[in-house]
Amino acid sequence: MSVTERATNVVLGGTRGGPDVATLRKDRWWLQPVVTVSILTAFVIYSTWAAFQNKNYYVGANVHRDLISPFYSPCLASSCVEGSRAGFFFNGWSLSPAFLILLFPLGFRLSCYYYRRSYYRAFWWSPPACAVSDAHSSYSGETRFPLVMQNIHRYFFYAGLVFNGFLTYDAIRAFHQPGLGWGVTVGTLVLIINATLLWLYSLSCHACRHLCGGHVKSFRAAPVRHKLWKIITPLNAKHMNFAWASLIFVAFTDVYVRLVASGVWTDYRLF
Amino acid sequence: MAQVTMRVWRGDANGGDFERYTVEQNEGEVVLDVIHRIQATEAPDLACRWNCKAGKCGSCAAEINGKPRLMCMTRLDQLPEGEVTVTPMRTFPIIRDLVTDVSFNFQMAAKVPALLPPPMPAEGYRMYQEDVERSQEFRKCIECFMCQDVCHVIRDHEENKAHYAGPRFFIRYAELEMHPLDTNDRRDLIREDMGLGYCNITKCCTEVCPEHIKITDNAIIPLKERVVDAHYDPVAWLGRKIRRRTKRSASDAAVQPAP
């Protein structure tokens, strides 16, 4: 049964105590926004550059490897280099194939509850830190367009799971070294760590926690969902760590594949 | 004997300013001890609220060096060197010195629709431990209102108080929404009148909570997800239509007799 509020008037106004200053904090509250801006800006610049490159994203049979950058996987354009193309692809796509897919991981991270906290603080200064004044004279939060669209986070979560599936498949394929058989190279490990971190980031997501069991009224009445919720909850507590680790490592994975593909680095075979 | 200089806000609704007091500081003392020493030695008319001195009543909430904290739980030797600034909570109207009028919170509390259980089975209802544990965290709240104080939605935008319950009451709503016997559906209310969408999850409420309640992760975000279920998720909507189930009919199914 949908309910309305119990009628009570809220009294507004009154004189506030303390001086009219942005903050009285004496600690280095600005440090966290500076670090966040630095890392996220660096990532956006690098990933944009990498997406426009449209080359050196795949290490193929010519060097007995099967490594693809996560920025280009799945490679869905007919222009994808030999060996990197997914089973389904678009003909006539003339831009970089990265642009066909990057919307999904970008949307997942942009609408992620943890990243929202970070960029609202660091970029929008709303507020820049706790007990430091909001930089805006009016505030409507996530009640209006475009920020009300943050509520579609769970759809990006679903899409993220599909992408994790592709990247896991890529990591398994990286064990295969064309012409040499099966083995493990540094690149194999890089792709495995990348896929693992992305799975941890996705499964620790707040939407995942809700969908797995957080939505039920009674855990007693839903024991399987309660078990799932209990598995996800400790992961969820580390969502911030997984968010940063997976972000940085996905960029590193692209760097690794790019440098191996361009011949700067050698992908050493371990066994 | 060590000494500490305290910069304390003195004033009322007509205005105010800082006054400095230099007083003794003994090992292990907290800010409230020194505020009491100022009252005893230099400023007997200094107003401050306090009660338990044990971090369990929430009365002595104030802002110490610009951050909301309980004066009784803030040790002076854990603050940076130099003078200590103490001001009243910024979000609420001042009464005098460090005392604020927190009526806004009681007005918001009065708006919360109470628990509405379904008709009980004749043999009674047994609430199981896993369902008790879920909301136990929220019941640790001591109503110091520091989460309300630090929340920029009302701290920096007074006009939002008219339509924003604030973190303290979001944990109350979450507790009720997660109660297996509750049949009230507060999701429209939370979204439209209590301003859940104003929260942008900056987690300051969680940072200042003296009871370490995970307000954002365990209450606000789950509430946001429940609002998404009801309003922004066409798949969930379709599922409800096909299965002809509402959230509340599912909760009715949860009512089990005592063994």
Task: Give the mean pLDDT of chain A.
Answer: 94
Strand content of chain A: 5-15%
Shape of chain A: globular
The secondary-structure class of chain A comes to mainly alpha
CATH topology heading of the largest domain in chain B: Fumarate Reductase Iron-sulfur Protein, Chain B, domain 2
Helices and strands in order:
The complex is a heterodimer of chains A (271) and B (259).
Chain A: H1 31-53, E1 58-59, E2 67-68, E3 75-77, E4 85-90, H2 98-101, H3 103-110, H4 113-122, H5 153-173, E5 176-177, E6 181-182, H6 186-203, H7 206-214, H8 223-237, H9 239-261
Parallel strand pairs in A: 3-4
Antiparallel strand pairs in A: 1-2, 5-6
Helix pairs in contact in A: 1-4, 1-9, 3-5, 5-6, 6-9, 7-8
Chain B: E1 3-12, E2 15-24, H1 31-41, E3 61-64, E4 67-70, E5 84-87, E6 94-96, E7 99-100, H2 103-110, H3 129-136, H4 146-150, H5 152-155, H6 167-177, H7 187-192, H8 204-208, H9 215-231, H10 234-243, H11 247-253
Parallel strand pairs in B: 1-5
Antiparallel strand pairs in B: 1-2, 3-4, 3-5, 6-7
Helix pairs in contact in B: 6-9
Characterise the protein shown here.
The complex is a heterodimer of chains A (271) and B (259). Chain A is mainly alpha-helical. Chain A has one domain. In chain A, 48% of the residues lie in helices and 6% in strands. Chain A contains 9 helices and 6 strands, in the order αββββααααββαααα. Chain A has helices spanning 31-53, 98-101, 103-110, 113-122, 153-173, 186-203, 206-214, 223-237, 239-261, and strands spanning 58-59, 67-68, 75-77, 85-90, 176-177, 181-182. Chain A has a two-stranded antiparallel ribbon with strand order 1-2. Chain A has a two-stranded parallel ribbon with strand order 3-4. In chain A, α1 (31-53) runs parallel beside α9 (239-261), α6 runs antiparallel to α9 and α7 runs antiparallel to α8 (223-237). Chain B is α+β, with helices and mostly antiparallel strands. Chain B folds into 2 domains: 3-100, Roll (Ubiquitin-like (UB roll)), CATH 3.10.20; 103-253, Fumarate Reductase Iron-sulfur Protein, Chain B, domain 2. Chain B is 36% helix and 14% strand. Chain B has 11 helices and 7 strands. In chain B, the strands form 2 sheets. Chain B has a 5-stranded mixed beta sheet with strand order 2-1-5-3-4. A two-stranded antiparallel sheet of chain B has the order 6-7. At the A-B interface, α4, α7 and α8 of A face β1, β2, α2, α3 and α5 of B.
